Amino acid sequence: DMEHVLLNLFSLVRDAVVYVQKNEGKLSTTISRLCGHAQQRQYRSANYPEDLFIDKKVLKVTHMEQEETLSSRRRELITKLKSHSSFYSNLPEYICKHSSAVQNNTLCWNGQEVMERY
Question: PANTHER family, alphabetically (predicted)?
Fold first, then answer.
């Protein structure tokens, strides 16, 4: 049932964002303790030969990839969750006001409770 999935999705995302915001220090410590330092990762891009021949000229290819660490990936996740929190918090009200899925029903979920459709 789509409504049931959406009801649970909002609360799960909201709870996850709130938990990460409240426990950022504790999560950092726990993740660092459990995972330690991230190992050097292999390059994700295709491997090129050291020398590329273009128009009979040699072009040196340099591999420059920013080192990924667990800490930087954690910060990236927290930033993305924060940037999307307003979307998920406004989604139920938007659906209740604009969605054709609720037009045949006078009750609608506004993100907090089921109430009369606007």
Answer: GLYPICAN, GLYPICAN-3
DSSP string, 35-85: H-SPPPPPP-SPP--SEEEETTEEEE-----PPP-HHHHHHHHHHHHHHHH
Specify which residues 84 forms β-bridges with.
none
- Scanning the structure block, which residue is given the tokens 């999705």? 9
Q: How many residues does the chain have?
A: 118
Tokens of residue 47, six digits: 């491997």
b vs e for 31-42, b when ≥16 Cβ sit within 10 Å of the residue's Cβ?
eeeeeeeeeeee
C-alpha–C-alpha distance, residues 28 and 53, integer Å: 47
